[in-house]
Design goal:
CATH topology: Rossmann fold
Structural class: alpha/beta
Strand order of the largest sheet: 2-1-3-6-9
Bound molecules: 2-acetamido-2-deoxy-beta-D-glucopyranose
CATH architecture: 3-Layer(aba) Sandwich
Largest sheet: 5 strands, parallel
Distance between the termini: 45 Å
Strand content: 5-15%
Number of helices: 10
Shape: globular
Number of strands: 9
Radius of gyration: 18 Å
Number of domains: 1
CATH class: Alpha Beta
Helix content: 25-40%
């Protein structure tokens, strides 16, 4: 009796799982506006698990925390849900003595803090904000995944330019917290270099950051390739179209 019921229960449990996405405009519905699109919108076509895209344009790991978006997402996490966290584009230094509400403290230590605006504000590192979210997601029985930011459409010869420090920090989060790290930057760079600069230029109608629907599709496919090459059990939810995305493991 148990033998016939257990697989059925397993299916019920599995089908209740959800993938939740935390990120910025490069992932969000509507991208950066003007017809651009975030890759999180194109991801569901490659998966058999429902996707809730909670990305918010203009956010960094810090402001996604401070504006309450992580708390809202974490409150909705059910045991067994996956959460992909991907930030970096809005996390860089404001370049001035004044805090812009987005920038993180420089460095990848969990507890690094930095004061700006005189002595009024203490800001933490990228790793501090992300690792807090990772720990809260784990506490709810969720399965966090850290993904490095997408590249800009900036080339060095025939190659996408190297990623900045937030790519490295994302990898450090994976190591420090023992969760799956998806090198999304690298997998997207691989896809772009295979297509070539002329084609990739057509994916960027307004600037070098926000993608068209076609570009968002390539970026979503690059994530799926990175997922298939990872050790995350989320790859069990990749469908036939997902298994057929181009390129190989890095
Ligand atoms: C920091 O100070 C600048 C200049 O006064 C101000 O524009 C900015 O809003 C302040 N940032 C925060 C987060 O309070
Ligand atoms: C960060 O600081 C807290 C409080 O002092 C401490 O408990 C924790 O171990 C520190 N974490 C790391 C990774 O250094
Ligand atoms: C991924 O890209 C980053 C940034 O360009 C680079 O530092 C790193 O070595 C790359 N990793 C792999 C596995 O290619």
């Amino acid at each position: 009796m148990l033998q016939t019921i257990l697989p059925f229960l397993y299916l019920l449990t599995a089908s209740a799982q959800t993938l939740r996405l935390a990120g910025d405009s490069t992932m969000a519905l509507g991208g950066g506006g003007s017809g651009t699109q975030g890759w999180g919108v194109e991801l569901p076509q490659y998966l058999t698990i429902p996707v809730v895209n909670s990305a918010v344009a203009g956010t960094s790991a810090r402001s996604f925390t401070n504006q309450g978006f992580f708390n809202t997402l974490i409150a909705s996490v059910q045991a067994g849900d996956y959460v992909v966290i991907e930030f970096g584009h809005n996390d860089g230094s404001s370049g001035t003595a004044f805090d812009n509400g987005q920038e993180d403290a420089v460095g990848n230590g969990y507890n690094i803090t930095q004061k700006t605006n005189g002595t009024q504000i203490v800001i933490h590192s990228f790793n501090f904000y992300v690792e807090n979210a990772v720990n809260s997601i784990k506490a709810k029985g969720g399965i966090p995944i850290i993904s490095s930011q997408t590249p800009d459409n900036i080339w060095t010869g025939t190659q996408i330019a190297d990623g900045g420090r937030f790519v490295t920090y994302a990898q450090t989060v994976g190591t420090d917290t023992g969760i799956t790290y998806i090198p999304h930057y690298n997998y997207t760079a691989q896809a772009y270099e295979a297509l070539g600069m002329t084609t990739v230029d057509t994916f960027y109608p307004i600037d070098h950051l926000h993608t068209s629907v076609a570009g968002a599709t390539v970026v979503a496919e690059a994530f799926v390739r990175g997922l298939l090459c990872s050790n995350s059990a989320l790859k069990n939810f990749v469908n036939a179209a997902g298994k057929a995305v181009p390129n190989g493991c890095i």
